[in-house]
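Sharing a chain and its predicted structure for anyone who wants a worked example. Both blocks are below, sequence first, tokens second.
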Amino acid sequence: MLARRRALMLVNPNSRRGATGLDPVVARLGAGGIDTVIERFETPDEVAADIARRRHEADLVIVCGGDGTINSAAKGVLETGLPMGIMPMGTANDLARTLGIPDDLLRAADIILAGHVSRIDLGEVNGHPFFNVASLGLSADLARGLTPEVKRRWGKLGYALAALKVALKTKPFRAQIISGEETVSVKTLQIAVGNGVHYGGGNVVHADATIEDGHLDLYSLELADVWKFGLMLGAFRRGEHGAWDEVRTAKSTEFDIRTKEPMPINTDGDIVTHTPAHFIIRPSAVTVFSPE
């Protein structure tokens, strides 16, 4: 008989589906041999601290929320080495999409019960971890406009509405992008550094990106006319934006970005730091439950 496992389930009640009843999920896990202790939290800082504090009480961590919630757990699972299961309960659920985890919570529970795990990379900017993407410019302005109320009311449509509003007001900025011995000066609307595949509700960082390839994918959106961004949206959904002359792309394990004035940086939906920014990759840093 297999020994029962213990799961620490961390729930963000403010996520888009945070009020969803989890009793069927807990029952499904229990029937499969996983006993669950549920913790609900009010601030993101509590998540990693709770994982670290209760590391000896759990065999795995299950994070219930969106990409911001999962990002909040990153330091905790990195420090403890505990495997992480994901219950996609946010708006975009981009990490779940990257890993092939369905929005249906019972099916997501079955993935955890099946026990298949992957080792995935973790990006880091100025010491702050990210799974999907870190960016400055247009998307950082967008992150500030996407309040929890907007996300709950409009869902993925909220991203499009907020993006349109921000794009009409945004102004280009100047920056230096440093990779190894190369420094380039750019005038850009946005610089994004991706670790995973999906971001922003389903956009693709780069057509051949994976979350297990050991490098970061950067793009810089160097448009003279903001209206042209609308023509490029399909390319961004497919990760083919690098084919446009106005989009600079690069791959590396490390980037530095400098701006004249400090600019906010958005990681997985939340503003966490400012330029100057140092980006690195931590290959195979986190263990997650994923479909085979």
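Comments welcome. The first helix runs from residue 23 to 31.
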